[in-house]
Design goal:
By secondary structure, this protein is mostly beta strands. The chain has one domain: Porin. It has one helix and 18 strands.
Amino acid sequence: MTLLLMLCFLSPFFSAGAQTADPYHMDYSTSEPLEYDDSDQQPQNNGKAETLDLGDKLDDQDDNVRRTPTGFINTGYTFFPIYERVDASTTAGGLDFAYYFRRQGEDPKSVPNSIRALFTAGQNQYVNTGISFDNYWNDGYHNIFAFLGYLRRPANFYQIAATDPQLLGTYRATDVNFNILYRQKVFDDTYLGAIYDYESDNIGLRVPSNVFNDKVFPGLTGSISSGFGVVFGNMPNVSIFSPHTSFAYEITNILYLSAFGSTSDFGKHTFDVREYVGLFPNHLIALQLYMNFLSGTPTYSQLSSVGDIFRAYYHDKYLDYHVITIRGEYRWTLFDRFMLTAFLGAGYHSSALSKFRLNNYLPSYGAGFRYLLSEELNSFVRLEYFEGRGSRGFMLGLGDDF
């Protein structure tokens, strides 16, 4: 209850600049007020308030779950603390800051540009920091996204491709990641683009390589992954703002080659599909199917992990060539800005597509609540508790998990 009261009191400060009560549209380049525009204040549809169009229809079923983006002052920011368990023995806290804006003349209901900075630190010398820039122009026709991150974390070596992997040793990982994406619309809200991804991993091996099952992966003492790829879909780049569509998808194919400086030659092929189904007013079900497949000879740090999708697990424990996860989340808007959530999922990992078994899955489940920071941007803060097979976790932070 104390947390709820704090959120109610502090939320105006967290979402400064995102209110539509001020009828002036500010020019980002000059900060000069423009002409008075009350078009967003007028009733629509013969006096009935307009509800959010989730694709073509999530219709009027859940107007409190998905709300109409009504345009906002062109600049604003969100500033919020985060706290989470990042592995079995380490918790971390920090700050998540996002600055968002639109240029003068852009559609007030278009996707906003944003600059996001993250810093967290915790036990066992854990440090995670990063900055991203997401820029749209020409009413969202063009988009460029860039990210630079640094991660230092305590980590564990487990058996690879094992149903119940044995702990083999510990190490400290230091990762530097950079990627840049350019894309443009090809039809409706669907984008086609090119991506470059770079990751440098410093591991410091403490376990003899001969204990790694029957296969030794390259990069056990450190590696570089450098590759170019293609991205196709309509999914947002960052999770600060909840999606305003009933169906979202993204297909990514990246080739990491020694010719680009990579330690080994391999490919990463990712499919992410999401559906948002309005049941009745204030009730929504979100569904996701996520698949990540590797080809060639991937480095150790680039192996697929259920922990990269489900927060109840950690990256190191369930590693394999391929991962498939499916999950659903029930979201119930209680009143005004508060929402309860409950979620359930199953994850599969395998060294070959033919070896996936329906009954050999890793469960993930939990519950939490969300608080709506900005109605205009559909931006939430969330507190969640989750469990998996022999593991559990929690987090307080911004945005949707999916």
